[in-house]
């Protein structure tokens, strides 16, 4: 029985010694000692510090090798090396727009592998890994950086007429800023927020029902996110309600007057068109009824010659045209122009000149 207890004691002692040895090895191995949040949120344009302090063990006698990498969110892709320290030299890798803004804060050889990123950008958002190697020890630490945009100065305005007894909506909106944005309305003067008011932190609306004089005052809207805040103000008033019936009647009367004016213009246009058409018709009738202009003596002689030359008849004898108007006498079927004056009363009535035909008839 004693032998059995002795063997059990020996096993317990051996296990205890092994455990102590293992704990000693873990304590003495390379260890990254940086503490703090695993996720860092910073505003765009700020300088960001990614901590990575380490403590090597006495057994770590190899060459120091420090690597900072951009961890790929896709597990099937390799991480991108951005900065390293090896052989006493600092080396930059990858995109120059990022690597040129990276640098070690202290001396990496004395236990501080922390780096800084100057003028942080939204595109710098990623998970970064610090890996410290000194054979045979190795340890690493990951930290996630989130670069956000501060909210811009919001705009405050009111939707509604600010009339007493009505509903007034105070609105607040920031044009820029990384989400999530939270809006908060406060009352600077006049007391607390009206009990009938409700506000929406996501949209920035403060809805006031049954508006009255007691709600008049200065209101302040503050918008914030994880990296900054901004605010704007609005002075709320209370006006007496307008006479809506009078407005409606005035609008109806104005519409009727406008309609009458339009009808008057149409009527005037029709009258002008009719008058213009009548004037054209009268002008055409006057031109049709106007007599032809009288011809000159020379044209009369030419007309007589035309009659003699072109309107001749057999059994008609013509005498030469005298300076005086000739007379015509007929005997049976023949007509003789004698050249005597018709004033003597001989023969037929005197020949008259018709200006319409251009010859005597």
Describe this structure in words.
There is one protein chain. The protein is of the alpha+beta class. Helices cover about 25% and strands about 30% of the residues. It has helices at about 1-30, 95-100, 245-290, 295-310; strands spanning about 30, 40-45, 50, 55, 65-70, 80-85, 90, 100-105, 115, 125-135, 135-150, 155-160, 170-175, 180-185, 195-200, 205-210, 215-225, 230-235, 315, 330, 335, 355, 360. A hairpin with a 4-residue loop joins β15 (about 195-200) and β16. It is elongated.
Helices, strands, pairings?
Blueprint lengths: L1 H27 L2 E2 L6 E5 L4 E3 L3 E2 L8 E8 L8 E7 L2 E4 L3 H4 L2 E3 L10 E3 L8 E9 L2 E12 L6 E5 L8 E6 L8 E6 L9 E4 L4 E4 L8 E9 L2 E9 L7 H46 L7 H14 L5 E2 L10 E4 L2 E4 L15 E2 L4 E2 L1
Largest sheet: 6 strands, mixed
Oligomeric state as shown: single chain
Supply Rg. 59 Å
Structural class by SSE content: alpha+beta
- Average the pLDDT over all residues and give the rounded result: 80
- Per DSSP, the total helix count is 4
Report how far the terminal alpha carbons are from each other.
Answer: 181 Å
Q: Uncertain runs with pLDDT below 50, 5 residues or more?
A: 21-27, 310-318, 320-346
N to C succession of SSEs: HEEEEEEEHEEEEEEEEEEEHHEEEEE
For the secondary structure, the number of strands is 23
Strand percentage = 25-35%
Silhouette:
elongated
How much helicity do the residues have? 25-40%
Strand order of the largest sheet: 2-11-10-5-6-7
């Amino acid at each position: 029985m004693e032998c059995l207890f002795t063997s059990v004691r020996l096993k317990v002692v051996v296990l205890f010694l092994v455990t102590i040895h293992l704990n000693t090895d873990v304590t003495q191995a390379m260890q990254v000692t940086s503490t703090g949040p695993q996720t860092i949120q910073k505003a765009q344009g700020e300088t960001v510090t990614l901590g990575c302090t380490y403590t090597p063990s006495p057994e770590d006698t190899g060459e120091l090798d420090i690597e900072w990498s951009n961890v790929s969110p896709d597990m099937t892709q390799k991480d991108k090396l951005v900065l390293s320290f090896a052989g006493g030299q600092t080396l930059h890798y990858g995109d120059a727009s990022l690597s040129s803004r990276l640098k070690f804060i202290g001396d990496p050889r004395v236990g501080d592998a922390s780096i800084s990123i100057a003028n942080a950008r939204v595109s710098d958002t990623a998970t970064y890994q610090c890996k410290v190697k000194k054979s045979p020890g190795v340890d690493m630490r990951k930290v996630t950086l989130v670069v956000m945009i501060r909210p811009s100065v919001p705009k405050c305005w009111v939707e509604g007429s600010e009339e007493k007894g009505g509903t007034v909506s105070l609105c607040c909106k920031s044009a820029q800023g990384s989400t999530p944005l939270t809006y908060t309305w406060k009352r600077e003067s006049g007391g607390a927020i009206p009990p009938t008011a409700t506000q929406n932190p996501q949209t920035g609306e403060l809805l006031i029902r049954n508006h009255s004089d007691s709600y008049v005052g200065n209101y302040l809207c503050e918008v914030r996110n994880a990296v900054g805040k901004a605010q704007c103000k609005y002075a709320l008033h209370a006006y007496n309600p307008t006479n809506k019936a009078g407005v409606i009647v005035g609008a109806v009367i104005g519409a009727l007057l406008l309609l009458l004016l339009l009808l008057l213009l149409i009527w005037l246009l029709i009258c002008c068109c009719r008058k213009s058409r009548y004037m054209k018709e009268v002008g055409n009738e006057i031109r049709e009824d106007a007599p032809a202009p009288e011809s000159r003596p020379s044209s009369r002689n030419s007309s007589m010659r035309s009659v003699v030359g072109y309107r001749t008849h057999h059994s008609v004898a013509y005498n030469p045209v005298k300076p005086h108007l000739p007379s015509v006498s007929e005997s049976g079927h023949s007509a003789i122009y004698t050249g005597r004056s018709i004033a003597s009363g001989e023969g037929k009535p005197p020949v008259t000149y018709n200006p319409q035909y251009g010859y005597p008839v």
